[in-house]
Amino acid sequence: MRHDRTRRPITQRPAVPGMLLAMLIGSLGFAMPAVARPPADTPGVDFGAEAASKEARRIANWIVDSHDNQALPFIVIDKVSAKVFVFDGDGRIRGAAPALLGMGRGDDTVPGIGQRKLATIKPAERTTPAGRFEASLGNDFDQDILWVDYDSALSLHRVIQGNPKDRRHARLASPTPLDNRISYGCINVPVHFYDAIVAPAFQGTVGIVYILPETKSLEAVFALGRKP
After folding, report:
1. Which end of the chain is more exposed for a tag (fewer CB within 10 A), N or C?
2. What is the pLDDT of residues 216-226, one digit of tens each?
């Protein structure tokens, strides 16, 4: 469920935004550690035993090759496949899981949606936007979550019960991604995956979340082919 700004305390904004972290590192004179590239004889980032689309592999390879993640942990979310991949700062995969995504198909955020009550958000407006987001752990009134984009109330969190008619747990467990579009825009993942993979990866640090587009090209959303 997308988090209603009227139901979450403003004090729960992520405590260490990425820009602030970058300014702090710069002021102390520290250099960001280089990201280890895959060996020359391997076909890019190793997804292990996880099945991944060519788009997900292309983005992961670009992230590591360009150092776009600045040695921070990162997540790749493939909306078409409804799957989440978590990597450490060196591009080593930590885990993957299916996900529930926004009911509305599209790659943009409706302006001002983070300020609106859930009841006013139409199905077509319930999108999971594509893009690159600086993310960190935080809280809403109910649980700890990963804030992906605080201003638009977009987060990644454990799957919730929601309306029983939504059958969220059943959708998440189904073998097809065709029934995974049910949320207000937030990314729902299995409880054990959030607790064992997502939360530890982002504990004490910010990270980057890359959400792949479904109606736009990769080049229209990410700086592919451009020098970092």
Report:
1. C
2. 999 999 998 76
